[in-house]
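Section 5.1 Outputs to date
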Amino acid sequence: MSRFFEKLKPFAPLCLRLGLAAVFLFFGLEKFYASGQASAEIDSILEIGLDLASLLNFILGIVEIIIGLSFILGWGIRWTAPVAAILIIVIFFLIILKFGLRLDPTISRDIGLIGACLALWFLGAGQWSIDED
């Protein structure tokens, strides 16, 4: 049985990349499809006004789409994976500072995403990637 799993190890970075890519692409595209809601959420957390929140929403959407595409291609993983982890950590702590630590599924989701980004950073892009670690 262990030989079977040994043969699957090379697929681990690919699975991490594609799973994280789907999440980041969804988050990024959502910022454009529901831009009013996303901007309002940013404003409620940072209290910066809707104009600046809309600009920040646009920039975050672009960054998340770039991260998602980078994960799909396996390009620049040693840079984009820690950037993605830091992005989630910053948002995570901003939400906790604003609303406090509470039992919320998004908190556990974010912790899982941080762990997955860090694992991808440590593992590298894998053999089916532009980086080919």
